[in-house]
Amino acid sequence: LFSPVEMAPRDPILGLNEAFNADNRSEKVNLGVGVYYDENGKVPLLRAVCAAEEARVAEQGPRPYLPMEGLASYDAAVQTLLFGAESSLLESGRLVTAQSIGGTGALKLGADFLYRLLNKRLVAISDPSWENHRSLFEAAGFEVVTYPYYDPQTHGVNLEGMLEGIEKLPEGSVVLLHACCHNPTGADLSLADWTRVIDVIQRRNHVPFIDIAYQGFGDNLQDDAVALRLFAESGLPLFISSSFSKSFSLYGERVGALTLVTESHDEMLSTMSQLKRVIRTNYSNPPTHGAKVVSAVLNNVELYAKWEEELAEMRDRIRIMRSSLVEKLAAAGVTKDMSFIERQRGMFSYSGLTKAQVARLADEFAIYAVGSGRICVAALNTGNIDHVANSMAAVLKD
Ligand code: PMP
């Protein structure tokens, strides 16, 4: 039975982790990860999370199944976080939210649901995008194309190219967008840019699917969700995949959500009923723990304030690492303007390092980055940044 099975291609990032783990040099640094590390190089356990977990253990409650769409208090809190407490959408009866197995699970649910809904199964993702976007939609039966996104000259967004690319897609295509902290480039759209993107999507009857996996890592919880709020105001139907993996540092608990903005209460009811079928036939119902913790924090004023503070600490530390890296690269003799690293947002930076330079970083300096030149700025700390800056300078200068 299994003899014809060929080895699947290696995941490039997991392969990188293996190489990093096998490296014996003490100065080694892994910038290939997609995880926030604190100043001590550890994945933090947030104080707000700890408090919610202690309360949950103390409660000694039973462990029943959750409903297919997940914990109701969690789903409602997700909606408030996405659209803002003042949003009229919250009371509109038009929102569908289903707790999901991380942001990945939300994308998969959305993709499976769209597959049933659409005749034209074409999705456009940014060039470049998080690698799993393509694989996931292809696995769900979609043709995946790209629209221009990153401008290597400015290290920012190629807005005109993006608008043109989205315009040219066949009418009614699914357009996948990153709400903030674009992975892998760190290059985000401005408010004015979003208005223009929404305009093209609306004119071409495309279906917007917004992935928000880093809310709070860019500017703050509100501003990072501005695209969602603009889309919602435009009246377009909307798919949103959201994740708390990073913002709650709850990676392995798999806490995410799929939220849909429908056009009427009736649409909401029928859409939810169909979405539940997708859930039922995939995994029946989602896990409890992460959603209980997140819900406890989001629905408690004190814990919420504590969480927001901790989120700001993570965000500020990343910003400090960004400016420190720019400064140290200049001090190490890099004459090229690297200030784009400071302008980019979130955990990642498209550093402009070539594949050959990335290979040299690993071979000569034990610094591991993705071949595309993506570095995880959230893996820098005061203990490793000098080594990283000096090594980057060495490969950039030659
Ligand atoms: N979307 C993007 C853009 C991401 O970067 C990630 C995680 N790296 C996800 C979705 C998936 O999030 P999760 O880990 O919660 O499945």
Automatic annotation (TrEMBL):
Residues 27-390 form the Aminotransferase class I/classII large domain. It comes from the Bacteria. One of its GO terms (molecular function) is transaminase activity. It holds the Pfam family Aminotran_1_2. Keywords: Aminotransferase, Pyridoxal phosphate, Transferase. Its cofactor is pyridoxal 5'-phosphate. Homodimer. This is Aminotransferase. It comes from Halopseudomonas salina.
